[in-house]
Amino acid sequence: MSTQTLEQIARNKNVARAAARQLSMEQLHKLAEVIGEVIEQKNDEEKRRQDEEEQKARKLAEIREQINEAGLSVEDLVPDQPKRKRGRPPKNAEKS
Q1: How far is CA 13 from the centre of its chain?
Q2: Using the 8-state DSSP alphabet, how is residue 96 labeled?
Q3: Domain containing 54: what range?
Q4: Which residues form the DNA-binding protein H-NS-like N-terminal domain (predicted)?
Q5: pLDDT for res 76
Q6: Residue 12 forms part of a structural domain
Q7: Considering only CA atoms, which of 71, 47, 51, 49 is closest in space to residue 59?
Q8: Neighbouring residues of 8: CB distance < 8 A, sequence distance ≥ 6
Q9: pLDDT, tens digit (0-9, with 9 covering 90-100), for 28-63
């Protein structure tokens, strides 16, 4: 079954009913079990991602606080980047 078919089934109850008519009760129960596991995995992944983002935000706040306490700024930590030299123009570039 393609992703497009799954999307159609998920969006339209009538399409889902039509697809379900083609399956036996045993297959429907198995499908419900599999979908439940997939939903649980997706929830776990989303929670883990949110936890990682929150932890990253806390660490960033701690680092910013330490920088401020030390009397520094972000500009003090990042050296000036050297200016890039322009390369040669393309061979077929029009001359203006």
Answers
A1: 28
A2: -
A3: 24-58
A4: 6-79
A5: 78
A6: no
A7: 51
A8: 15
A9: 999 999 999 999 999 999 999 999 999 999 999 999
| Structural domain includes residue 85 | no
- The reported pLDDT for the residue numbered 50 is 98
| Number of neighbouring beta carbons within 10 Å of residue 4 | 8
Structural tokens at position 11: 């969006």
Residue 6 lies in a domain: no
Average pLDDT over every residue of 50-77? 91
Distance between CA atoms of 23 and 35, rounded to whole angstroms? 15
Widest Cα–Cα separation across the chain: 74
pLDDT at 8: 87
**Residue 41 and residue 48 in contact, taking contact as beta carbons nearer than 8 Å:** no
Q: How many domains does the chain have?
A: 1
pTM, two decimals, is: 0.58
What's the residue count for the chain? 96
Query: Is 93:87 a contact under the CB 8 Å cutoff?
Result: no
